[in-house]
Specification:
Elements: H1 3-27, H2 34-37, H3 39-43, H4 63-70, H5 73-80, H6 82-114, H7 144-179, E1 188-192, H8 202-213, E2 218-225, H9 229-247, E3 252-256, E4 259-263, H10 275-280, E5 296-304, H11 307-315, E6 326-329, H12 338-341, H13 348-365, H14 367-377, H15 379-385, H16 390-393, H17 396-404, H18 406-415, H19 418-429, H20 434-458, H21 463-468, H22 476-508, H23 510-522, E7 534-535, H24 538-555, H25 562-583, E8 585-586, H26 595-620, H27 624-647, H28 649-653, H29 657-669, H30 673-680, H31 692-698, H32 707-716, H33 721-729
Parallel strand pairs: 7-8
Antiparallel strand pairs: 1-5, 1-6, 2-5, 3-4
Helix pairs in contact: 1-17, 1-22, 4-25, 5-6, 6-7, 6-24, 6-25, 7-26, 7-27, 7-33, 13-19, 14-18, 14-20, 18-22, 19-20, 20-24, 22-24, 22-25, 22-26, 24-25, 24-26, 26-27, 31-32
């Protein structure tokens, strides 16, 4: 591919970015698009709605960029939680690493590559991309040591930055845990595969088991029920209530004893009495006990008197039969994936194997569009396959468009099918939490994208040839050394096309914007729908960021031109995602920073693979000195990874006993335990309408996250720094959520 084809792709994408960013700065000012671009502020009641006409609404402005840049990490942590901070830290780490890589590669490696052969150079736009890559360096050249030095600097810098980031995020995770003083999940264990007894119910079996073996620590338990038509009707009634409440005009509510009276226009109504009174007064519901009408599952939430007791119970083998009385620490109440709790525990291993096979099959089927895309990058092969296109492809501009832009665009379109597919497979696996499902989907999408975007494109051809490379371990470095430099130009255009365009589409929110336009201006629907705030799509965005970092490590010394484009992408991603976190997305549940170990492992894998590729390239270039220096670098990187795995990874797997014991002692000294025990009984609300008010005290919600529960959850989210500061200043504070607006 010629350098002019790359310039064509860059020019097209810069134009798209400028147009979409300018259009976004105008559309976000329009009152009709508030639900599209300010969903988070609507959900948290922090948006001032203004219908007045002003000319400034139709003039592009960079105000959103300034706001995103000025927002501190502390504010992100306070409002959006630890996962949002970790995601931005991944981007910041990439900016730092590839700033170093761009300087080293552009001023050291690129000149060596460009003048690596004794040849007459053309004008730069007419040059081939290959003259800027390592392929242009002649064999047995002493200048290959420059590539070895560059690789050492990049990898050592990345390891130092990784260490400090891992240590910093580990500290934030500990603050997240210790700051959630009233988190019910610390006292709760999920028990599954409860043995069936014909003489007694599951509930009685659980009570007898834990009073027998955990007599001093057992507090109570709550059975899990299979959802039925009654639960669906309750959810529909809740949605209808929210819709009527949102569309009531100037509804005025006054708190009365036992409930709330709402006065307003003819479409207003009276809310039932308070939840506790409603549940206790069975006559109000005609003696209909909704809970008793549901069927018990062989699973239950068991509450313990201390955090330490819950931790011990969750990690011990409860029975001589490992397939019965299976225990895990319960997820946060608002993070529970209720529909999966009724899945029999004995089915889980079958489900995981089945989903692994399904994901692998989907990856193999996806080889078809990838092969088609790769054929488009080879102009001669494309002309032989489609002879009727020869005249069309001889046009210079069209050939540059087809080889430099369209392959990446087609691959991007096919990749949009991946996240929803992987999310479905992760849900079928049987995850007990929504955050666990999203983390599992994140891993699947990451493996899928790295396999199909990198490995399949590198070894483009038959499936047998692609797989056979990995069965001959001695030939792996040489195969990579041949294949990766040849495909470096495709990865360069992929970064420009997929990276920059994806950020433009992300900030524009094209799908919600289109739906909003159709509803308002085509269907002429004036009534505002029930707005469900969006959760941040970590399962799509984390793999995307990590994929570009992966390409940067593997291609930086082979094709140095990729580094400035990557650096620009990460700078743009930092501003765009920060803006989206502040305005569009809301944190419905937390993983407690569990995405950072994924980022760390992917970065280590990328560095080791880059070193293996360099080893293969130096061997093919007959440079034994450079090849010999790569081997210690590989060993050092693996040793560093093992140290981090031993030092930091356990913090993300379990909570330290000393931390939980200190939290228990502090609660006992302050007399807070009785309050915690009282709230534990209503913390896990499987049936939404029966305990909504008690749930809001904890900041939890049901599987159907509502606008009211989101507001409460933000103020009471475990690990909220505002709450942490208040708890540390007053050691006997009872942990009531308080939201402080600046």
């Amino acid at each position: 591919m010629e350098f002019s084809a790359l310039l064509t792709s860059v020019g097209i994408n810069i134009g798209i970015c400028v147009v979409l960013f300018s259009l976004y700065s105008i559309l976000r000012k329009q009152p009709s698009n508030i639900t599209v671009y300010f969903g988070r502020k609507i959900a948290t009641r922090k948006l001032k709605h203004c219908e007045t006409f002003c000319l400034d609404r139709f003039v592009p402005s960079p105000s959103w960029i300034v706001k995103a840049w000025e927002t501190s990490e502390e504010e992100i942590l306070a409002h959006d939680g630890l996962d949002a901070v970790v995601f931005l830290r991944i981007i910041i780490f990439s900016i730092r690493v590839f700033s170093i890589a761009a300087i080293i590669c552009m001023f050291l490696v690129l000149p060596v590559n460009y003048y690596g052969q004794e040849m007459t150079h053309k004008m730069i736009p007419s040059e081939s991309i290959n003259v800027f890559g390592i392929e242009n360096v002649k064999e047995n050249s002493k200048w290959l040591c420059a590539h070895c030095i560059a690789l050492y600097i990049i990898c050592c810098s990345a390891c130092v930055l990784l260490y400090f980031e891992y240590a910093s995020i580990s500290r934030l995770r500990l603050i997240h845990i210790t700051g959630s003083q009233m988190n019910p999940s610390h006292f709760t264990v999920l028990v599954r595969s409860i043995p069936w007894s014909p003489e007694e119910t599951y509930s009685e079996t659980v009570r007898k088991f834990f009073t027998n073996y955990y007599a001093s620590d057992y507090l109570s338990h709550q059975m899990i029920y299979r959802s039925s038509t009654v639960q669906k009707l309750m959810n529909d009634a809740e949605k209808m209530y929210n819709m009527m409440k949102e569309n009531s005009v100037e509804m005025h509510c006054q708190k009365l004893k036992g409930g709330c009276f709402c006065a307003g226009p003819t479409n207003s109504f009276t809310i039932l009495p308070s939840v506790n009174d409603s549940v206790n007064d069975k006559k109000l519901y005609g003696n209909m006990d909704l809970i008793a009408g549901e069927k018990e599952c062989s699973a239950a939430f068991v509450f313990f008197k201390t955090r330490y007791a819950a931790l011990i119970a969750s990690n011990l083998l409860q029975s001589a039969n490992p397939m019965s009385w299976a225990t895990d620490l319960a997820p946060d109440p608002h993070d529970v994936y209720w529909s999966n709790l009724s899945i029999p525990f004995k089915q889980l291993w079958i489900r995981k194997i089945g989903m692994l096979v399904a994901a692998t099959g989907f990856m193999l089927v996806f080889l078809i569009p990838v092969t088609i895309v790769q054929s488009m990058t080879q102009l001669e092969q494309l002309q032989q396959t489609f002879p009727f296109l020869r005249g069309f492809l001889k046009m210079k501009y069209m050939s540059e468009l087809v080889t430099g832009y369209l392959p990446s665009v087609i691959l991007i379109l096919f990749m949009y099918l991946v996240p929803p597919t992987m999310m479905t497979l992760s849900a079928l696996e049987g995850s007990i939490s929504r955050s666990g499902r999203k983390r599992s989907a994140c891993l699947k999408v990451l493996y899928f994208t790295i396999w199909n975007v990198f490995f399949v494109n590198v070894f483009a051809g038959s499936i047998i040839h692609t797989l056979s490379v990995f069965f001959s371990f001695k030939d792996i470095p040489a195969q990579f050394g041949k294949a990766v430099p040849a495909q470096a130009s495709f990865f360069l255009t992929y970064v420009v096309s997929s990276g920059w365009a994806s950020l433009s589409c992300e900030v524009m929110q094209l799908f919600p914007l289109t739906c909003n336009f159709i509803r308002r201006w085509i269907l002429r629907i004036k009534i505002e729908p029930i707005y469900e705030p969006l959760a941040f799509p970590y399962h799509t965005e984390v793999p995307r960021i990590l994929l570009f970092g992966f390409l940067g490590f593997t291609c930086s010394i082979l094709a140095p031109l990729i580094t400035p484009f990557l650096l620009f992408y990460f700078f743009l991603a930092y501003l765009v995602y920060k803006n989206q976190i502040l305005n569009v997305y809301i944190s419905k549940y937390e993983t407690g920073g569990q995405f950072w170990p994924i980022a760390h492992n992917t970065t280590i894998f990328a560095m080791v693979l880059a070193q293996v590729i360099a080893l293969g390239v130096f061997s093919l270039k007959e440079s034994p000195v450079a090849s010999g220096f790569i081997i210690p670098l590989i060993i050092g990187t693996l040793l560093f990874h093992e140290y981090c795995r031993q030092r930091f990874r356990p913090i993300f797997r379990n909570t330290a006993a000393e931390v939980l014991i200190e939290m228990d002692r502090k609660d006992e000294q302050c007399g807070r335990m009785e309050e915690i025990y009282r709230r534990l009984r209503t913390a896990y609300c499987q049936f939404t309408l029966l305990a909504k008010r008690d749930c809001s005290t904890w900041g939890c919600s049901s599987s159907q996250d509502t606008e009211n529960s989101v507001t409460d959850a933000e103020s009471a989210r475990p690990g909220n720094p505002k709450q942490v500061i208040e708890l540390w200043n007053d050691p006997c504070h009872l942990g009531e959520p308080v939201l402080i607006n600046k």
